[in-house]
Design goal:
The protein is of the alpha+beta class. It is built from 7 helices and 4 strands. A 4-stranded mixed β-sheet has the order 1-2-3-4, with helices on both faces. Strand 1 and strand 2 form a beta hairpin.
């Protein structure tokens, strides 16, 4: 597991990337020439629970350090890794705080790939990001195995991400 480097934790924090917008025709044309490999690396990585857990621990330490160094030690001590203490179905992984004491709900998405790598978001995560948008933060941790960096997407995932339905639960009848 990685722990935040000993330097300034702000060196890990970067601005969210901006993906260039292409028209539908260009996206379809590009998708049709991509060779299909037998392995879906994105899906494999998303199911890698040890990578996800390590990313959550990394962000937990980062948040603790952020609050501690800002003099909000009483808040740093109250951060909770709710994915461990209450289960993984809340729609966020960590309950932290803003410096003024307001609660901050953090969902961590970790990849060993680059900043623009797509990720999977559950229906619950999207719902909580909308219902509690003032408190919700998605921390996108990328290049985790080499040089970890993180950017933050605040509020509703519908406003900060392009959401594509990729999975359905099917029932007979």
């Amino acid at each position: 597991a990685h722990t935040p480097p000993t330097g300034d934790w702000r060196d890990i924090l970067v601005l969210p990337p901006v993906r260039e917008r292409r028209n539908l025709y260009e996206r379809v044309a590009q998708a049709s020439v991509i060779p299909r490999l037998g392995v879906n690396y994105l899906e494999r990585e998303s199911r890698n629970t040890s990578l996800g857990a390590a990313g959550e621990e990394f962000v937990l330490a980062l948040e603790h350090r952020r609050l501690w160094e800002a003099g909000a030690r009483h808040l740093a001590e109250r951060i909770e890794h709710v994915a461990k203490t209450q289960g993984d179905g809340l729609g966020y992984d960590i309950a932290s705080f803003e410096l003024d004491g307001r609660e901050c709900l953090i969902e961590v998405k970790t990849t060993s790939f680059g900043a623009l790598t797509p990720f999977f978001a559950s229906r619950r995560e999207v719902m909580i990001s909308e219902e509690r948008s003032e408190q919700y933060r998605l921390y996108r941790l990328f290049k985790f195995r080499t040089t970890p960096k993180v950017f933050v997407l605040p509020g509703s995932l519908r406003l900060s991400c392009q959401l594509d339905p990729v999975q359905y639960r099917a029932s007979i009848g």
